[in-house]
Amino acid sequence: MTDQLIIFDTTLRDGEQSPGASMTRDEKLRIARQLERLKVDVIEAGFPASSNGDFEAVQAIANAIKDSTVCGLSRANDRDISRAADALAGAARARIHTFIATSPLHMEKKLRMTPEQVLEQAKLAVRFARNKVADVEFSPEDGYRSDVDFLCRVLEAVIAEGATTINVPDTVGYAVPELYGHFIKTLRERIPNSDKAIWSVHCHNDLGMAVANSLAGVKIGGARQVECTINGLGERAGNCSLEEIVMAVKTRKDYFGLELNIDTQHIVAASRMVSQTTGFVVQPNKAVVGANAFAHASGIHQDGVLKARDTYEIMRAEDVGWTANKIVLGKLSGRNAFKQRLQDLGVSMDSEADLNAAFLRFKELADRKAEIFDEDILALVSAEQQSNVDEQFSFVSLAQHSETGEQPKARIVFTMHGKEVVGESGGNGPVDASLKAIESLVKSGAEMVLYSVNAISGSTESQGEVTVRLQNAGRVVNGVGADPDIVVASAKAYLGALNKLHSQTERVAAQG
Ligand code: KIV
Ligand code: ZN
Asked: Which of 122, 291, 320, 346 could form a disulfide with 267 if both were Cys (CB 3.0 to 4.6 A apart)?
């Protein structure tokens, strides 16, 4: 048994399945580059057969990433597998991940297939995939709720067909650590050819135990791959969180005794990038990447940490990429300083034109805000990336009036399909009035299912970062906007969400 733990990141596939978290090709590529910097072993870049957009995203990632294996998901059929293989053709190292459900419930109600048919299809799929690439992962979907005898038959058969990784998903987050760990152990002990494959865990967080279950799968079960996402992003309560599993294994190396390739100093930048791209805000008390994760508020703790850091700290903030909230740039900083700071933050721009556009936004921000923090820079880079996406609506300017006892009013100028338009409306408050002013012209009819504001660098002088989640005709999208004026940030977020609503294509659900 190897002492290396493979980190398989599925932020761009399972994470993206979270309603509203869908990303464009360029956004996915940017995150993939950050994952490569983080040195994740495998990047699951998407589900190529689900839509042309996802095919192109996986293709772009496969062509760009050199140091990590790039993986594409496919259902267990020839068409999906061929699509995945085509999308991965340019990869330095390619993996096809094929899956089919094996639990009685899923086979009967969802697939309407008998167990024997599922077994046959799983074998055919792995055989077909192995003819395309050497690295094939197989997942029995809802594996944890499957009959163990049947699961053993399926897994033994797919290993015999050449599956190199066997992943055991707890698709619905039903497992508890000890039981899940023993489940993996039992499978490995009972399947005669189990040593021919690497065993992997894939846990969802519905009961808040995804990380604990994954660790038990590793410790008790002997799994040597963990599937996880940045910030624990994912459908419902999300997936096992990359930063938590990595820091648990690293901090408690005395217990787990495992090596990791991850360069942990890029964790915080990856977390921010994913949060700002998807609009899924990280809760302040989230382990490792939450704003409070290393903050010591109580006097006793502060005193202890000042005397000896390890009195209350088990990890060093700088080891995961936290830098103190320091003023990094200002109005007088030039393009080179800006470029250097982007490099320090691990952000690479795709072209000089993108860099120039981001620098222009930086100058505009620096005119309005004397102190520019790392968080501001990351937010404006995100905004720049968003604005590269099929922009049908774009913010120009906003005036609003609110006074106690009077109904707030807003007048907003924005471009709609390349033409400047002016919308006016009243509302419950300035934000409501501004968004209604946009809607009075766009008439999207979308329902707002989430609105949240977050101060990027923690004070009233900071930029407000707003997330707006819209739902229309079964689609859910997030828009993110940042500005020192939260009403403007809200308008930008709303327009960003409308852009996504207009550009998003239909896709097939991986677990539908
Ligand atoms: O949770 C799950 O079962 C999955 C599979 C597609 C691997 O994400
Ligand atoms: Zn999953």
From this structure: 320
